């Protein structure tokens, strides 16, 4: 439909200004970053990339696309991991980038809240909170690039969920442009507001399929006055879960992170990124030594001081070392050591990537179920594919594991890889779902897990989701082919 | 439609057993408590009261009522304050009581979660958590009677929201019987689960108009090891809000409650419930003395011990007394004193009731807006009705005030009262909404605030809510005339 296309592009240019609408012919290079995800797994084409500068302009883009029967892919920082933010291969879709809606609208320190436009990067939001002496605790590897609108559209998780919750729990209100091109104002900064249905929560996590988030009110927290980080070695996952339970009981809200890493990902870091591999004694005593079976990274905050955080965490670690729950432990005694500990954890994805292709899973389950799952899944994979390897690490405090499997040598490309991927997914997801778990804890559904969701979701829940999509976006204008 | 009625009652009796279906003819006395709210403001009649004993029986009741075209009023403990849980006056509706679904299904201490049926009382849920050494922090005056299903259907608040959130933040998953009589299984116990739309959150707070909650997975917390409560006198609301801000900054998650009471409600307690009025020195130094302009009740928990909680709260109070932010303060030194402090706060509603009729408001706004609101609303009411009196108290930590107005002597009944109520509501809600506030912070909409919501809600939000209702309950079977 080239005529329709031209008319739409002309109308978009008239509404937004010529420079706010990119087309592939004119700006091929500029174009590229909107069309592929950053893992380079999804590559699409677009009729145009519209970059509105205000909520009203977003609504105009939606209305114009609706008039022309052209579907829309809303896009924030384009850092998603499930192909939810790039257009399909048809070249018929419009990418609606929120990146120019990038202003912090208000910070209300007394109310511990702030109001921001959707295109603000997460780092920008964190910085604005810090400038007011407060904390916006959402924290992700991609925080310099990802946007708060994308974080909310995907209900992002990260490393502080244990204490502060996911993006959902950090959002007080939203402004949304609907599929009808109307502006829904639910931008309240209230902690309690029982006036009808939770529209805010319906849009959060809907991955741009029900409406386009244009602004948000966010919940801020006091900045902890002290912080201490530690590495703890555990003999097995059962001990790590018991350690978590003890830490929650004894440190309560002071426990802000509880990450876990198995020996294999630590070995991969040692091989590919040796500078990151041994952050602190005793974990650097002998760089050639075998890593512990499981290493926990935990973070403890204090409302008093760094010294208080360190003393209370040291006291607690002395106890768990005495009881044998932990094999070994080390505190970070300064910011350099603290960063080195987090550097170890954060180096795993790059070390993995350097090692080669992995079939990745972002699974979640009750923490009580994790030890038996790790045991059973590991055994089943080893039996079925003796030379496959499991790279397991993640946010144990939330029951969320990144459970990645390196295919056997003969299944690392082509049809063999596709068959392996299908089989290992079936195995992993089967064991996860049998334990009341989820096939996507934090990454979302996007294009990657859509079929899997359709297969495995509760049928009444799935039918309800389809009905909601039909109600809020009856013509299928918004991000078609994603989620459901 | 007596024939239809009989056939439905017969079918319900056959499905549930004769004793599980009450009709007014047979059990008039037993009947009564299902038909009026506990404030005795709403009185209805019912064709039958169905008391299913399982999720499947709930689904059966829904299907039978749908077949007979009879609408359903779901009911938990019937302690709601907005007329959302009692039938209308037609005598044509069926009350569906969840009270027999009253089992705790599972407690998972390692996952800090539990699964319960909807008819469990809140106290029963709290007790089951405590028996596992854990905390379910939702806490309300009616906790011995209200049910967890009702708490979730209304997104209940209470005194611990500041730290632990409302019922919504304490829920991990739901089982719901839909308006089609199907069972929607979203009963997961996961802290992170990004697999499609937030159906759980759509049913939470929908007051039984979108589906019937039959079971829930709940988030548990560690039990604090120490606790200390204090009363603090402030010169004005501005000082109280600054005190709150300082407390959040310095005590962080250790601040678990921050309630406020103005002098007038304290005087009413002194007049009508003198034993409760003066819990502790210096606030009992002279029982005839004038109460402070504003009295704050704050609670501080510690992950260490009671002594630690008391010492750190005392240290903090010494500071705020020195800076002049507080006029006076007292710690509870034992459980008796602690209960006396809470007793003062909890006596206010009864003292109010004894004093006479009040036009009540459950308003919320950003805490930063509260001082100017209190000032402006007080002045406007005094100007318009010189002998009206404002009774103001509530959950300042959440920006939620119970802002009740005693009508002038000439407007305490009949048409004059109705006129006064309309005018004072318009005045109060107008000032609240102008500050980004809400006309119902925690009580919900029910029947009481339905028209007000229709008048004041964002029109796009309201239209969206209506579309959701139409989608999930196309025949209007569930709790018609409530919320929207």
Automatic annotation (TrEMBL), chains A, B:
Residues 1-179 form the Phytochrome chromophore attachment site domain. InterPro entries: FAD-bd_oxidored_4_C, FAD-bd_PCMH, FAD-bd_PCMH-like_sf, FAD-bd_PCMH_sub1, FAD-bd_PCMH_sub2, FAD-linked_Oxase-like_C, FAD-oxidored/transferase_4, Oxid_FAD_bind_N. Its cofactor is FAD. Residues 42-223 form the FAD-binding PCMH-type domain. One of its GO terms (biological process) is respiratory electron transport chain. GO terms for molecular function: catalytic activity; FAD binding. Keywords: FAD, Flavoprotein. Belongs to the FAD-binding oxidoreductase/transferase type 4 family. This is Hydroxyacid dehydrogenase. It comes from Aquabacterium olei.
């Amino acid at each position: 439909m080239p005529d329709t296309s031209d008319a739409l592009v002309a109308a978009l240019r008239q509404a937004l200004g010529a420079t706010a609408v990119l087309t592939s012919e004119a700006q091929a290079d500029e174009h590229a970053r909107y069309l592929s995800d950053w893992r380079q797994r999804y590559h699409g084409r677009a009729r145009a990339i519209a970059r509105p500068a205000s909520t009203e302009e977003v609504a105009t883009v939606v209305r114009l696309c609706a008039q022309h029967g052209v579907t829309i892919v809303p896009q924030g920082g384009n850092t998603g991991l499930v192909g939810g933010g790039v257009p399909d291969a048809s070249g018929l879709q419009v990418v609606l980038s929120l990146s120019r809606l990038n202003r912090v609208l208000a910070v209300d320190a007394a109310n511990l809240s702030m109001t921001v436009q959707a295109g603000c990067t997460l780092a920008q939001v964190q910085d604005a909170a810090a400038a007011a002496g407060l904390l916006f605790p959402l924290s992700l590897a991609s925080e310099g690039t990802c946007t708060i609108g994308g974080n909310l559209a995907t209900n992002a998780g990260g490393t502080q969920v244990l204490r502060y919750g996911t993006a959902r729990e950090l959002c007080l209100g939203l402004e949304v442009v609907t599929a009808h091109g109307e502006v829904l104002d639910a931008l309240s900064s209230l902690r309690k507001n029982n006036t009808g249905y939770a529209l805010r929560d319906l849009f959060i996590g809907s991955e741009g399929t029900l409406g386009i988030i244009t602004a948000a009110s966010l919940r801020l927290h006091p900045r902890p006055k002290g912080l201490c980080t530690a590495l703890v070695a555990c003999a097995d996952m059962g001990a790590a879960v018991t350690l978590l339970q003890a830490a929650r009981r004894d440190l309560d809200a002071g426990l802000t992170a509880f990450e876990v890493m198995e020996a294999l990902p630590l070995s991969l870091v040692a091989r590919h990124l040796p500078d990151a591999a041994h952050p602190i004694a005793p974990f650097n005593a002998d760089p050639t030594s075998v890593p512990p079976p499981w290493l926990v990274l935990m973070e403890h905050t204090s409302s008093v001081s760094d010294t208080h955080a360190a003393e209370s965490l040291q006291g607690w670690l002395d106890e768990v070392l005495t009881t044998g729950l932990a094999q070994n432990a080390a505190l970070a005694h300064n910011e350099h050591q603290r960063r080195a500990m987090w550097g170890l954890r954060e180096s795993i994805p790059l070390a993995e990537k350097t090692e080669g292709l992995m079939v990745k899973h972002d699974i979640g389950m009750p923490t009580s179920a994790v030890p038996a799952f790790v045991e059973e899944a590991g055994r089943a994979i080893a039996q079925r594919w003796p030379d496959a390897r499991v790279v397991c690490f993640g946010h144990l405090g939330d029951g969320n594991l990144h459970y990645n499997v390196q295919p056997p040598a003969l299944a690392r490309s082509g049809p063999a890889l596709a068959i392996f991927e299908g089989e290992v997914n079936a195995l992993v997801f089967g064991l996860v779902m049998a334990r009341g778990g989820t096939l996507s804890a934090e990454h979302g559904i996007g294009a990657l897990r859509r079929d899997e969701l359709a297969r495995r979701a509760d049928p009444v829940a799935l039918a309800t989701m389809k009905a909601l999509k039909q109600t809020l976006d009856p013509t299928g204008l918004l991000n078609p082919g994603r989620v459901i």
